[in-house]
histidine kinase
Amino acid sequence: MFDKLHRQLTIFCTATIGTILVVLSLLCLFYARQSIIQTDRSSFQKQLNTILTSLQSQEYISHQWLNQMQNEYRFSIYLYDNGEPLYYEQLHEDASNKRQASLREKAIRKSQVDIFYDNSGESAYHEEFSLRENSHSYYTSVGYLTQNTDRLSFVIFYDLSHLQHNLYSLYVLILAADVITLIILSVFSWHFTRRVLLPVETSRQKQQEFIAAASHELRSPLTVILSGMETLDKTQSPEQRHHFCCLMQEEGRRMQHLISDMLLLANADAHGMKLHLQETSLDELLLDSFEKYESIALSRKLSLRISLPEEDIPFCRTDPERIHQLLSILLDNAVSYTPENGTILLFLMPARSHRITFGVANTGSSIPDGEKERIFDRFYRAEKSHTDHEHFGLGLCMAKEIIRAHHGSIRVTEPEVLASDVTELQKFPVETGTLFLMELPL
């Protein structure tokens, strides 16, 4: 499903942005083309005025000057003295000139005034227009100049083949740029949409794993309850009936606890965990948790200690109930996995940089580096704890959600990391044990 969605999103992104790119390219091409044509037309007018001024000021026209004008300005100049072609044209008559004879006649016919026999009395007249012959285009000027009784008529062509070449090069350049951009865009869209979909795909996979794990965890107590009910129906012994009733009640409470945890996490995913924030003294919360778990630790032959700083601790804006739940999760986890005669430490550090740090450490085996991030995943339990029916693998995940709702952080490391800051940690065995370290903003 995600592969198909990935392809569709890639095509959609490429097509959408590509369409915008093509439209913008066409607009740029239109204005660039208009600018090039206008610039070339202005250049033609400027050069034409230069030639006409020179023609009007000269008493005689040399072949050298005509050759220079034609070569310098890329003009084709045809002059007529009182209606007769100049001798210059006869000297340079060739196949090309013969082919342009029809073009000159077409230009003369297109002009508004008879340039050879006009009797308007004007001393000079010329008009410019565009002309196309076969596949060639020209700017054309047709007119005459009068000096005394002499009339010098002219037909001047400005070949636009260089303009067409420039425009063609512009088209090819923009087309190539668009094609290369679309290729790069498609590759970028492929990788970008993949990165966008990756969290969704990961979330869906985790959701499937969550449902599978939750179903498995719910199936176990449900199986015990159903089998107990069947046995209850068959047995007549009051002792056995009482035993199975207690067993079903215990499994029912386990199921209720699991469902409550799942609902809490589901609500945190959908709407965020709701907090009732108030100014809280963290050292008092730690003392309350210490007193609650001190007898539990003694019953399991564990040493529970607490370390508080000597200086006053500023109040922290938290939800006391959620922080107490967080400490209960971590202490319960420590009590369950600390070996006999081990030590558990609940500590609070002085406030630094507008943040306050506290944690729970215990002796025993440390968590492998490969599992330090995974232990906060839902229903994740270390291999050695898979047979533990008291933990569902949701506690540390809930602890992370509580800390995240308070805009804090939680991580797991070794006690030796903070041995220099917390004196009690120096009594732990070197490079053994687990430390859950938490930070909250003040």
